[in-house]
């Protein structure tokens, strides 16, 4: 659809419209790259599709994608029927994605969120708060299970902390102009060492 709009903008000869569409294409590409990074992290570090009795990787990815769109495209459709605070998307990711589990196999569902929303406690008047169009992905029936456990709770903690750090570094570099830190220089986790622990 973006290509169709770009073609229409070129046909009209409007430089402003064309540059606007190109800017949205760049944002779309950047959001897609961030989603693919997140997808790879989940695939690499979570060895089970079911990490909770309430959520699974598919749900986490869906709410993460909706949150990315609300961050990169913070304009809403004119025909939006129901608007919600944009920060609600972040809270959905925080509650549906994996948690950092404590070093105790008895407390499976306790711990800190693996994805932390920032800026939620800032004082804003309700009318100043950014509103987004409410988006619902089709809910899936989630299997109720006791949850699969990875071998070591310490490994799970390290993995989820790495995911959190990666997300924070990625978005802090986006907001600071792109010249920030990069995780490319960090060494990869040696899987044989991880299995031994």
Automatic annotation (TrEMBL):
**A GO molecular-function term, please?**
stretch-activated, monoatomic cation-selective, calcium channel activity
At the top level, the lineage of the source is: Eukaryota
Mind telling me what this protein is named?
A: Family with sequence similarity 155 member B
Where mainly found? membrane
Q: Which UniProt keywords apply?
A: Glycoprotein, Membrane, Transmembrane, Transmembrane helix
Compartments in which it is found: Membrane
Q: Which GO terms describe its cellular component?
A: plasma membrane
Reply yes or no: does the keyword RNA-binding apply.
no
């Amino acid at each position: 659809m973006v290509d169709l709009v770009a073609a229409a903008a070129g046909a009209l000869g409007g430089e402003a419209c064309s540059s606007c569409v190109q800017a949205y294409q760049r944002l779309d590409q950047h959001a897609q790259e961030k989603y693919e990074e997140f997808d790879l992290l989940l695939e690499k570090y979570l060895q089970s599709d079911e990490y909770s009795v309430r959520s699974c990787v598919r749900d986490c990815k869906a709410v993460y994608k909706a949150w990315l769109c609300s961050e990169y495209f913070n304009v809403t459709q004119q025909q939006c029927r129901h608007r919600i605070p944009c920060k609600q998307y972040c809270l959905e990711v925080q509650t549906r994605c994996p948690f950092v589990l404590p070093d105790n196999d008895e407390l499976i569902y306790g711990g800190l969120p693996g994805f932390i929303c920032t800026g939620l406690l800032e004082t804003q008047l309700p009318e100043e708060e950014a509103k987004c169009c409410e988006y619902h992905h089709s809910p899936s029936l989630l299997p109720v299970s006791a949850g699969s456990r990875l071998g070591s709770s310490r490994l799970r903690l390290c993995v989820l902390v790495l995911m959190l750090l990666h997300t924070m570094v990625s978005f802090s570099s986006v907001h600071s102009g792109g010249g920030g830190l990069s995780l490319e220089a960090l060494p990869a986790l040696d899987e044989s060492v991880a299995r031994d622990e």
